[in-house]
Amino acid sequence: MDYQIKTKDKFSYIEEGQGEPLVLLHGLFGALSNFRDLVDHFSQNYKVVVPLLPLFDLDIFNTTVGGLEKYVNKFIETLGYKNIHLLGNSLGGHVGLVHVIKHPENIKSLILTGSSGLFENGMGDSYPKRGDREYIRKKTEVTFYDPAMATEELVDEVFNITNNRLKVIKIIALAKSAIRNNLENELHQINVPTLLIWGKDDIITPPYVAEEFHKLIKNSELYFIDKCGHAPMMEVPGEFNVILDKFLKKVSN
Protein backbone atom coordinates (compact mmCIF):
# COMPACT_ATOMS: atom_id res chain seq x y z
CA MET A 1 0.00 0.00 0.00
CA ASP A 2 1.24 3.51 -0.81
CA TYR A 3 0.64 6.00 1.96
CA GLN A 4 -0.21 9.66 1.59
CA ILE A 5 2.50 11.93 2.98
CA LYS A 6 0.84 14.71 4.97
CA THR A 7 2.38 18.07 5.85
CA LYS A 8 1.77 20.49 8.69
CA ASP A 9 4.03 23.47 9.26
CA LYS A 10 7.56 22.17 8.60
CA PHE A 11 6.65 18.53 9.27
CA SER A 12 6.09 15.72 6.76
CA TYR A 13 4.61 12.45 8.02
CA ILE A 14 2.21 9.63 7.36
CA GLU A 15 -0.79 9.03 9.60
CA GLU A 16 -2.93 5.94 9.08
CA GLY A 17 -5.78 4.52 11.16
CA GLN A 18 -7.56 5.63 14.32
CA GLY A 19 -6.94 5.06 18.02
CA GLU A 20 -4.05 5.67 20.37
CA PRO A 21 -1.02 7.03 18.45
CA LEU A 22 1.76 4.58 17.61
CA VAL A 23 4.63 6.86 16.56
CA LEU A 24 7.48 5.19 14.64
CA LEU A 25 11.00 6.66 14.46
CA HIS A 26 13.31 5.33 11.72
CA GLY A 27 17.08 5.02 11.89
CA LEU A 28 20.05 6.62 10.14
CA PHE A 29 19.49 4.93 6.78
CA GLY A 30 15.82 4.34 7.47
CA ALA A 31 12.76 5.30 5.48
CA LEU A 32 8.99 4.81 5.50
CA SER A 33 9.47 1.48 3.72
CA ASN A 34 11.12 0.05 6.86
CA PHE A 35 7.75 0.10 8.62
CA ARG A 36 5.44 -0.98 5.80
CA ASP A 37 4.27 -4.27 7.38
CA LEU A 38 3.96 -2.65 10.78
CA VAL A 39 1.80 0.22 9.43
CA ASP A 40 -0.44 -2.20 7.49
CA HIS A 41 -1.01 -4.35 10.57
CA PHE A 42 -1.39 -1.78 13.36
CA SER A 43 -3.37 0.89 11.50
CA GLN A 44 -6.39 -1.39 11.96
CA ASN A 45 -6.45 -0.56 15.70
CA TYR A 46 -4.11 2.41 16.23
CA LYS A 47 -3.30 5.75 14.68
CA VAL A 48 0.08 4.86 13.19
CA VAL A 49 2.30 7.90 12.63
CA VAL A 50 5.70 8.01 10.92
CA PRO A 51 7.42 11.42 10.88
CA LEU A 52 10.10 11.86 8.21
CA LEU A 53 13.09 12.73 10.36
CA PRO A 54 15.21 15.57 8.91
CA LEU A 55 18.48 13.62 8.99
CA PHE A 56 20.01 15.76 6.24
CA ASP A 57 18.05 19.00 6.66
CA LEU A 58 19.16 20.31 10.06
CA ASP A 59 22.11 22.69 10.22
CA ILE A 60 25.34 20.92 11.13
CA PHE A 61 25.26 22.15 14.76
CA ASN A 62 21.86 20.52 15.30
CA THR A 63 22.63 17.35 13.32
CA THR A 64 22.73 15.41 16.58
CA VAL A 65 20.59 13.01 18.60
CA GLY A 66 19.50 16.01 20.68
CA GLY A 67 18.61 18.03 17.58
CA LEU A 68 16.43 15.19 16.26
CA GLU A 69 14.75 14.84 19.68
CA LYS A 70 13.84 18.54 19.64
CA TYR A 71 12.32 18.05 16.19
CA VAL A 72 10.27 15.03 17.42
CA ASN A 73 9.12 16.96 20.49
CA LYS A 74 7.95 19.89 18.36
CA PHE A 75 6.23 17.45 15.97
CA ILE A 76 4.30 15.83 18.83
CA GLU A 77 3.35 19.26 20.24
CA THR A 78 2.21 20.54 16.82
CA LEU A 79 0.06 17.48 16.08
CA GLY A 80 -1.28 17.36 19.64
CA TYR A 81 -0.76 13.62 20.19
CA LYS A 82 -1.43 12.16 23.67
CA ASN A 83 -1.08 8.64 25.15
CA ILE A 84 1.64 7.81 22.63
CA HIS A 85 3.22 4.42 22.07
CA LEU A 86 6.68 5.49 20.87
CA LEU A 87 8.68 2.98 18.80
CA GLY A 88 12.20 3.50 17.49
CA ASN A 89 14.65 1.41 15.49
CA SER A 90 18.41 2.00 15.70
CA LEU A 91 19.07 5.78 15.86
CA GLY A 92 15.29 6.29 16.05
CA GLY A 93 15.28 4.28 19.29
CA HIS A 94 18.01 6.52 20.68
CA VAL A 95 15.98 9.63 19.81
CA GLY A 96 12.94 8.00 21.45
CA LEU A 97 14.88 7.28 24.63
CA VAL A 98 16.05 10.89 24.92
CA HIS A 99 12.49 12.09 24.32
CA VAL A 100 11.00 9.87 27.03
CA ILE A 101 13.67 10.99 29.50
CA LYS A 102 13.03 14.68 28.75
CA HIS A 103 9.29 14.66 28.00
CA PRO A 104 7.57 11.61 29.54
CA GLU A 105 4.21 13.35 29.96
CA ASN A 106 2.52 12.21 26.72
CA ILE A 107 4.21 8.82 26.43
CA LYS A 108 2.21 5.71 27.37
CA SER A 109 4.82 3.12 26.36
CA LEU A 110 8.23 2.82 24.68
CA ILE A 111 9.28 0.15 22.19
CA LEU A 112 12.94 -0.24 21.18
CA THR A 113 14.38 -2.48 18.50
CA GLY A 114 18.10 -2.48 17.69
CA SER A 115 18.40 0.85 19.51
CA SER A 116 21.59 2.80 19.98
CA GLY A 117 22.11 4.71 23.22
CA LEU A 118 24.49 2.32 24.97
CA PHE A 119 26.68 0.78 22.27
CA GLU A 120 26.60 0.32 18.51
CA ASN A 121 28.89 -0.74 15.69
CA GLY A 122 28.61 1.98 13.07
CA MET A 123 29.70 2.00 9.45
CA GLY A 124 33.16 1.03 10.64
CA ASP A 125 36.44 2.86 11.09
CA SER A 126 36.89 3.69 7.42
CA TYR A 127 34.17 5.57 5.59
CA PRO A 128 33.56 4.36 2.03
CA LYS A 129 35.04 6.08 -0.97
CA ARG A 130 32.24 7.80 -2.84
CA GLY A 131 31.14 5.52 -5.61
CA ASP A 132 32.14 2.26 -3.87
CA ARG A 133 28.85 0.43 -4.37
CA GLU A 134 30.19 -3.00 -3.42
CA TYR A 135 31.29 -1.68 -0.04
CA ILE A 136 27.81 -0.26 0.49
CA ARG A 137 26.24 -3.59 -0.46
CA LYS A 138 28.32 -5.43 2.16
CA LYS A 139 27.54 -2.84 4.83
CA THR A 140 23.83 -2.99 4.01
CA GLU A 141 23.85 -6.81 4.16
CA VAL A 142 25.35 -6.62 7.68
CA THR A 143 22.07 -5.06 8.85
CA PHE A 144 20.29 -8.39 8.34
CA TYR A 145 20.69 -12.04 9.28
CA ASP A 146 19.67 -12.93 5.72
CA PRO A 147 21.86 -10.92 3.30
CA ALA A 148 19.19 -11.33 0.61
CA MET A 149 17.18 -8.70 2.53
CA ALA A 150 19.65 -6.14 1.13
CA THR A 151 17.76 -5.80 -2.14
CA GLU A 152 19.08 -3.81 -5.10
CA GLU A 153 16.52 -1.11 -4.28
CA LEU A 154 17.73 -0.85 -0.67
CA VAL A 155 21.41 -0.85 -1.68
CA ASP A 156 20.64 1.90 -4.21
CA GLU A 157 18.95 4.01 -1.50
CA VAL A 158 21.98 3.78 0.80
CA PHE A 159 24.43 4.21 -2.10
CA ASN A 160 22.73 7.41 -3.24
CA ILE A 161 22.90 8.82 0.29
CA THR A 162 26.58 7.98 0.72
CA ASN A 163 27.42 9.36 -2.71
CA ASN A 164 26.38 12.85 -1.61
CA ARG A 165 29.24 14.65 0.16
CA LEU A 166 27.03 16.82 2.40
CA LYS A 167 24.88 13.84 3.42
CA VAL A 168 28.02 11.86 4.28
CA ILE A 169 29.18 14.69 6.55
CA LYS A 170 25.80 14.67 8.30
CA ILE A 171 25.76 10.85 8.65
CA ILE A 172 29.17 11.02 10.33
CA ALA A 173 27.96 13.85 12.60
CA LEU A 174 24.90 11.82 13.66
CA ALA A 175 26.92 8.64 14.17
CA LYS A 176 29.46 10.49 16.35
CA SER A 177 26.65 12.15 18.29
CA ALA A 178 25.07 8.75 18.99
CA ILE A 179 28.37 7.41 20.33
CA ARG A 180 28.92 10.48 22.54
CA ASN A 181 25.33 10.48 23.81
CA ASN A 182 25.56 7.42 26.07
CA LEU A 183 22.44 7.11 28.23
CA GLU A 184 23.63 4.53 30.76
CA ASN A 185 23.31 6.94 33.72
CA GLU A 186 19.90 8.28 32.66
CA LEU A 187 17.92 5.14 31.81
CA HIS A 188 16.78 4.72 35.44
CA GLN A 189 14.58 7.80 34.89
CA ILE A 190 12.33 5.90 32.47
CA ASN A 191 9.14 4.71 34.16
CA VAL A 192 6.83 3.93 31.24
CA PRO A 193 6.27 0.28 30.23
CA THR A 194 9.07 -0.57 27.79
CA LEU A 195 9.29 -3.38 25.25
CA LEU A 196 12.65 -4.49 23.81
CA ILE A 197 12.48 -6.58 20.62
CA TRP A 198 15.91 -7.68 19.47
CA GLY A 199 17.40 -9.82 16.74
CA LYS A 200 19.53 -12.64 18.17
CA ASP A 201 21.95 -12.07 15.29
CA ASP A 202 22.14 -8.27 15.45
CA ILE A 203 25.83 -7.36 15.06
CA ILE A 204 25.28 -3.57 15.08
CA THR A 205 23.66 -3.49 18.53
CA PRO A 206 24.45 -7.03 19.73
CA PRO A 207 22.20 -9.01 22.12
CA TYR A 208 24.19 -7.98 25.20
CA VAL A 209 23.13 -4.38 24.48
CA ALA A 210 19.48 -5.43 24.75
CA GLU A 211 20.24 -7.21 28.02
CA GLU A 212 21.88 -4.05 29.38
CA PHE A 213 18.84 -1.95 28.39
CA HIS A 214 16.62 -4.54 30.11
CA LYS A 215 18.70 -4.29 33.28
CA LEU A 216 18.77 -0.48 33.34
CA ILE A 217 15.13 0.25 32.36
CA LYS A 218 13.15 -0.97 35.34
CA ASN A 219 9.72 -1.53 33.78
CA SER A 220 10.96 -3.38 30.69
CA GLU A 221 10.49 -6.74 29.03
CA LEU A 222 12.85 -8.28 26.49
CA TYR A 223 12.17 -10.60 23.55
CA PHE A 224 14.82 -12.07 21.28
CA ILE A 225 14.02 -13.27 17.76
CA ASP A 226 16.19 -16.04 16.29
CA LYS A 227 17.81 -15.70 12.84
CA CYS A 228 17.21 -11.96 12.83
CA GLY A 229 19.50 -8.93 12.57
CA HIS A 230 19.29 -5.21 13.32
CA ALA A 231 15.85 -4.46 11.82
CA PRO A 232 13.37 -7.11 13.06
CA MET A 233 10.31 -5.16 11.86
CA MET A 234 11.67 -5.54 8.29
CA GLU A 235 13.23 -8.99 8.45
CA VAL A 236 10.61 -10.90 10.47
CA PRO A 237 7.55 -8.61 10.49
CA GLY A 238 5.09 -11.39 11.36
CA GLU A 239 6.89 -12.40 14.54
CA PHE A 240 7.65 -8.76 15.41
CA ASN A 241 3.98 -7.77 15.07
CA VAL A 242 2.77 -10.65 17.26
CA ILE A 243 5.10 -9.60 20.11
CA LEU A 244 4.20 -5.92 19.75
CA ASP A 245 0.47 -6.64 19.47
CA LYS A 246 0.46 -8.54 22.77
CA PHE A 247 2.39 -5.76 24.52
CA LEU A 248 0.18 -2.95 23.21
CA LYS A 249 -3.01 -4.75 24.21
CA LYS A 250 -1.63 -5.15 27.72
CA VAL A 251 -0.55 -1.52 28.17
CA SER A 252 -3.60 -0.06 26.42
CA ASN A 253 -6.05 -1.61 28.89
What are the segments in which pLDDT stays under 50 over at least 5 consecutive residues? none
By DSSP (H or I, 4+ residues per run), the number of helices equals 9
Nearest-integer average pLDDT: 92
Strand adjacency order, main sheet = 1-2-4-3-5-6-7-8
DSSP summary, beta strand count: 8
Main sheet characteristics:
8 strands, mixed
CATH topology: Rossmann fold
Radius of gyration from the alpha-carbon trace, in angstroms: 17 Å
- N-to-C CA distance: 30 Å
Q: Which structural class matches the secondary elements?
A: alpha/beta
- Overall form: globular
InterPro entries: AB_hydrolase_1 (IPR000073), AB_hydrolase_fold (IPR029058), AB_hydrolase_sf (IPR050266)
GO molecular function: hydrolase activity
Protein name: Alpha/beta hydrolase
Organism: Polluticaenibacter yanchengensis
Can you give a write-up of this model?
- By secondary structure, the chain is an alpha/beta fold.
- The chain has a single domain, classed as 3-Layer(aba) Sandwich (Rossmann fold), CATH 3.40.50.1820.
- The protein contains 9 helices and 8 strands.
- An 8-stranded mixed β-sheet has the order 1-2-4-3-5-6-7-8, sandwiched between helices.
- Strand 7, helix 7 and strand 8 form a beta-alpha-beta unit.
- Helix 1 crosses helix 9 and helix 2 packs across helix 3.
- It is globular and about 50 Å long.
